[in-house]
Amino acid sequence: MALIAPSRRIRRTPFSDGVEAAGVKGYTVYNHMLLPTVFHSVTEDYRHLKSQVQIWDVSCERQVELRGPDAARLMQILTPRDLRAMLPGQCFYVPIVDETGGMLNDPVAVKLADDRYWISIADSDLLLWVKGIANGYRLDVLIDEPDVSPLAIQGPLADELAARVFGDAIRDVKFFRYGIFSFAGRDIVIARSGYSKQGGFEIYLPDSDLGMPMWNALMEAGRDLDVRAGCPNIIERIEGGLLSYGNDMTRENTPHECGLGRFCSTETAIGCIGRDALLRVAKEGPVRQVRPLSISGDLPPCDRLWRVMAEGEKVGHVSSAAWSPDFETNVAIGMVRMTHWKPGTRLEVETPDGMRDATVEAKFWN
Amino acid sequence: MALIAPSRRIRRTPFSDGVEAAGVKGYTVYNHMLLPTVFHSVTEDYRHLKSQVQIWDVSCERQVELRGPDAARLMQILTPRDLRAMLPGQCFYVPIVDETGGMLNDPVAVKLADDRYWISIADSDLLLWVKGIANGYRLDVLIDEPDVSPLAIQGPLADELAARVFGDAIRDVKFFRYGIFSFAGRDIVIARSGYSKQGGFEIYLPDSDLGMPMWNALMEAGRDLDVRAGCPNIIERIEGGLLSYGNDMTRENTPHECGLGRFCSTETAIGCIGRDALLRVAKEGPVRQVRPLSISGDLPPCDRLWRVMAEGEKVGHVSSAAWSPDFETNVAIGMVRMTHWKPGTRLEVETPDGMRDATVEAKFWN
Fold first, then answer.
1. Could you tell me if B320 lies within 8 Å of chain A, comparing CB atoms?
2. Whether residue A1 has pLDDT greater than 80
3. E strand or H helix at B202, and its extent?
4. Do residues B243 and B249 make contact, with C-beta atoms less than 8 angstroms apart?
């Protein structure tokens, strides 16, 4: 690993001072913003996440705000998921595709009102796509990136910590729903969601100036819970089958290849971009798809695609991999051709350090 | 500085093996790709760049390719620069703005044919904007990111090195023009351009598999010229007044604020997005504009905007700054209000390490 050079272009967040004080050791860049990747060690962070509670600076999940009379229409143009039943208070995971059905982002849409949405984005400048479409379709809608920075509370003790700061009512917020809670005299959207399988919340901090007060309030309130600064953990997210845009899927892939077919109601999502392309995929099914793979032996960091081979022929690739202490194997996410995706299939993975044996698993580990 | 975590999402380049072998010490992330920032030290790299010749892995200048009958029409929709006189063989620096006149990118457009362009982009996913506009306007044009990775030759000895590898004809290529040159039996676009003021070329490598052969051929041919791996240098680019998208300008800024008014022919660039907004700006002029500033005292790295103050009032900000050994001052790029932008004006800059005296300069240093 090399050092990351500081510049305004790699944006700091409202919580960066707290992240630095907590001794962040590694970063990645996500939506032109700093995203921590390790505090103690990836393995120690993993153990702590699975047993206690962590505060994550995920400000890099930037919001694209849609506001105005055509906001709902635009939202449906953007995704093959049928949004007719979506109500304010709900969060929907919405694949966003181009006219060929290729994934542009896999964000969470937050419906604030009938004429107002946030799209909480993965790592691509979806703002530019949404603005381009709105401009080309001449829709009456304002699109902007507001000063809203998500802060996640994740881990088994997340409910306890959140209740101490926001009141017991937060325990009743259902999965992928949000409530409005008060902090420092401000109304704040807090959803039960997050990029781990350990449970928790995402606080949509509405004003950068509230960043460190919020960070400090959570750290204070959770002292006896051993609350720590944390971040999305590569081991835990692979175990849980949480895909990462740019790693496990790109514009090359359809939602169906990514196992996201259940979020595509292509028949009824009238007017959505990519509908023509996806109708056929939805009917025939994809010829390759995301699969959990276990891999044996020592592995280097997965910083590029590794080819997956069967009898000397390429049948897929691995895009994410890490050693899992809990499952005592290398857990991995791959894209595998139909001919070789049956659980139990033995394959080989071509890593920069040599060939490794791999097995297609029936499901993700957690 | 913290470490950068490896992942496929932060893409390697066709030259990464060469960059690593040359001992890269720092990276930034640019268009979801690794961009080296330092090899020996920023100052040593700077001295070498200004006296010898360097090879830069600027693959992160990704290309957006426009191809088809509506390519030229789309290109003019995208920029307020008048492109009517642009011929194949030419490169044009083209501000790209949204409907409010806010900068989305400041790329170089390369005209390959009447129906084919590359847009060599700065750090934003311009592909998504271009695809969104093409989709909304229902244009007959294919848009994609091809396997084209720029490699720059920069420095006073660039002509000599390029001539050794591509032949003497390359010396005749004029500034912001390109020629087609042969390498390994392939036709390769090479332009006289680059992100320094030291002169040189940008090779548009058309196939990743040619990456290391090209890298090695240049390193071999330049051994007696002391050719080295290099990268855009923050000191040299500030001295030369080369702006950086995301650092010195964002969607908040018009081209006129960035001093790019001369690239906007808003009156004649009929049909371009942002025309309505920019017509007024073009007439009145901006109320704030990019200015070179010299700053006294020790400075931390400029990783966020620093407020520029005059008599306790905010009159601008600094977005890039570095110590210049050649000019023996801190050179900086700022955005300053009209009331305080006259050369010689004394200002104060609020850095994380305290207030510093600053002066508005009449022009950039080089």
1. yes
2. no
3. strand B200-205
4. yes
Rounded Cα gap, residues B163 and B178, in angstroms? 14
pLDDT exceeds cutoff 90 at A329? yes
Distances (CA, A) of A133 to A263, B54, B202: 21, 41, 33
Q: In terms of CA atoms, which chain A residue is nearest residue B74?
A: A136
Q: Are A357 and A348 in contact (CB under 8 A)?
A: yes
pLDDT tens digits for range A173-228: 999 999 999 999 999 999 999 999 999 999 999 999 999 999 999 999 999 999 99
B1 pLDDT more than 70: no
Pick among 2.40.50.1020, 3.30.70.20, 2.40.30.110, 2.70.70.10: CATH of A288-366: 2.40.30.110
pLDDT in tens, B43-66: 999 999 999 999 999 999 999 999
- Classify domain B63-131 by CATH number: 3.30.70.1400
What one-character DSSP code corresponds to residue B18?
H
Structure tokens at B326: 């050649």
Among the listed residues A204, A303, A290, A279, the one whose alpha carbon sits nearest the alpha carbon of residue A242 = A290
| Closest-approach residue (CA) in chain A for B244 | A9
CA of A34, closest CA in chain B: separation in Å? Answer: 10
Rounded-to-integer distance, Cα B213 and Cα B216, Å: 5
